[in-house]
Design brief:
319 residues, SH3 type barrels, Alpha-Beta Plaits, five-stranded antiparallel beta sheet, three-stranded antiparallel beta sheet, 8 strands
Length: 319
């Protein structure tokens, strides 16, 4: 084989290899192009669907905002209509404001979802949230219990905002009654949050339910002192005090014959709008102590006799 033939064969081999590489490259490029084309087609469909649904999304947002504003108008209307009437209870206004406004916002949310999402129904939302299932029911048991207790407290109105109450040895002034919890301000300035279920199922002492409150304290006098004289002194002090009510009447009685003194129980009533129970008790006690000192009536205190044993005494020698 001459050199020309070898060269021709080499050229043919190179041409075939080049054609094979070109075909392979073309197939690869075509495959990649197909993939990008499919991705672009999907993206294009998504964007087309988005732009198609965009007006509905805007309408849904506008509808939700309108219902939210409607809830604010509802709160304002309830406050103006009911708060100015003397027979309307304050907690009833809170129930209508919070429960009613929440229902309006939730209803607006459902309408917005129906507008924004094709084929959406409220039953699908209920199914998606799992409302009615045993697991969700147990998980939200405490939440639902507190909400129901809060509504019953607001409707039953055992106490109002501004009252001072005691619940489970926790005392404070009621600052707010929400659907979930009751907020108190303790006497030392701390906030106490009590779940409504605890408030509803526990005994509640409302200190400010009535304006008339009873005050009392006990004082002891010596057995050698005149009991009737001491009682008369205390009665005169109570009678002169302008903040002490005449009805119910005040009283001073012997309550106990203790080891070191005769105990006198002193009771009277005050109007908490004029003075506090602590201030009234403090003032009466100060006047009683001063009057007893002037009248030479003793206020005894326990006295103990201490004997010190120093051992046997030294006896003189009898030898």
């Amino acid at each position: 084989m001459n050199e020309v033939s070898k060269f021709s064969l080499s050229v043919q081999d190179a041409t075939q290899a080049l054609q094979a590489a070109s075909e392979k490259t073309a197939k690869t490029v075509l495959g990649e192009t197909t993939k990008y084309n499919e991705a672009y087609t999907i993206f294009d469909k998504i964007m087309a669907s988005f732009w198609e649904r965009l007006p509905y999304f805007i309408i849904a947002v506008v509808v939700f905002i309108l219902f939210w504003l409607l809830s604010k108008v509802f709160k304002f209307f309830i406050a103006k209509t009911l708060s100015n009437r003397t027979y309307t209870r304050q907690n009833l206004v809170l129930v209508l404001n919070r429960v009613g406004s929440s229902a309006i916002v939730f209803f607006g949310f459902l309408i917005a979802m129906v507008i924004a999402i094709p084929g959406f129904t409220p039953s699908q939302l209920v199914g998606a949230l799992g409302i009615g299932s045993v697991a969700i029911g147990f998980a939200f048991k405490d939440i639902f219990q507190n909400m129901l207790s809060g509504i019953l407290i607001l409707l039953g109105e055992p106490f109002r905002i501004g009252d001072t109450i005691v619940v489970n040895n926790m005392e404070g002034k009621v600052e707010d009654i929400q659907v979930r919890a009751t907020f108190l301000r303790s006497p030392d300035g701390r906030r106490v949050v009590i779940p409504n279920a605890t408030v509803y199922t526990s005994a509640v002492i409302v200190n400010t339910a009535y304006m008339e409150r009873r005050c009392d304290f006990s004082i002891g006098i010596g057995y050698d002192d005149d009991v009737q004289k001491a009682k008369k002194i205390i009665l005169n002090i109570l009678d002169r005090n302008q903040t002490i009510l005449s009805q119910p009447s005040f009283s001073v009685n012997v309550s106990n014959l203790a080891e070191f003194s005769v105990k006198l129980a002193v009771t009277w009533w005050v109007n908490t709008q004029e003075t506090s129970t602590s201030a009234s008790i403090s003032k009466v006690q100060e006047e009683v102590v001063q009057a007893f000192r002037c009248e030479k009536i003793s206020i005894p205190y326990p006295v103990q006799e201490v004997k010190v044993y120093r051992g046997e005494p030294n006896l003189p020698n009898q030898d």
